[in-house]
Please model this.
Amino acid sequence: MKSLTKLGMKQRTYAEQKALWGFVYVLPWLLGFVFFFFIPLLSSLRYSFSTIKANAEGITITFSGWKNYVEALTVNATFNRILTEAIVNMVVNVPLIVIFSLFLAVLLNQKFFGRSVARSIFFLPVILASGIIMTLESTSLIQAVNEQNAGSGGVMNALGSFELAKMMLQAGVSETIVNYLTGAVDRIYQIVSQSGVQILIFLAGIQTISPQLYEASKIEGATGYEAFWKITFPMVSPLILVNMIYTIIDSFSRNALTDLIRDTGFVKFNFGLSSAMAWIYFLAIAVILLISSYFISKKVFYHE
Model:
């Protein structure tokens, strides 16, 4: 240590060590972003302001200004509708997924027989939603589910939602809340299939909470309900922000609008219009993330 001091190298503080190791862990992603993502991003921005034509001599790129953006927002018959539907679905599904994930994580953190199997079952949709399996699921499985919903399964779901709505309305619950909850029941497959990663993150965060806090609360006479709202919920509030951001991005990464953007570029070969749609979509996601992060970060409790 003395030799290092003589050479002019001072010992780093704990904060400096955390910053250094944080940069080391982020470095692989940073290199991948610079070399494999940043250049295509600039090319896409250039294409969105250009008219691209292919001929015998190659690809001709002509600057056209805001033409592609105007066409996407005013001329294209489906872009605005699909973009609105994607935003509405995100607003509806994200709170449901985050609340459902937190609820399941609290339950899966309890000690019971077969806990590991139960955790695997709820994480299984994450594996099924990747690669070739996702393609198979989106064609055969979803088609089979839709056929079942069109038959007796759809009738049973409708009856179940009707009875639930009737019961809550009789209890004096607002009609808006009733419609929201019954809609959640109808989308239960989508909510469960998109909650695997969030459950895992919440579960990891809950397991880092010191058991002494719960023991002290029991000594003070706190109930399980009070322990959740006074201990568990504040301690995992940073993870609520993380899961909210992840869920928003995940909901925007696979929907009808991404299919429209891909088909416009690689089926109709209109790369200028496709790039303009992608940048409008990107800006919409960025605005939603900024607004959501701003309001939720005010309620986050950080424990050192």
